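Following the same procedure, sequence and fold were stored together, as reproduced here.

>
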Amino acid sequence: MSIKSRSARRRAREYALQGIYAWIISGCEYQERGAVDAHIRNQEEFSQADEQWYKTLLYGVFDQAESLKEKFAPYIDRPVNELSPIEYGVLLLATFELSALQEVPYKVVINEAVDLTKEFGGTDGFKFVNGVLDKLATDLRTVEVNAFAKKG
């Protein structure tokens, strides 16, 4: 996908994921949050991202990381500390969107998470992320998932 065709929200998700990745790598230290945010905001093309969406995603994950992890942990086949940092970051980000941002359709959340994993993660990481999020969406957004299933 060319950089010009990306929406401001897509860019915000990419930058939020980069920030979450850096935060994970730093050991999820509280004091690193501001430094991570400042570093991401200083990137050359950050102005093309939806700044408010980025902030909502980044700090939503920072503030709720433990509860987000508890939500997706039942659906992963290994301990969280064995996930790649990208898979872990994408799962945190998408779990936050699924649980806290109901205005975003669950299919959009999953598609964006899969695309981010394809772009930044390992070869087959997107399949793992997709499987986890499909199951998680059924729990977190039962009514929406069932309504979609009835249409199909």
About this structure: Residues 7-151 form a domain with the N-utilizing Substance Protein B Homolog; Chain A fold (CATH 1.10.940.10). The helical segments are 8-25, 32-41, 51-72, 85-100, 106-120, 125-140, 142-151.
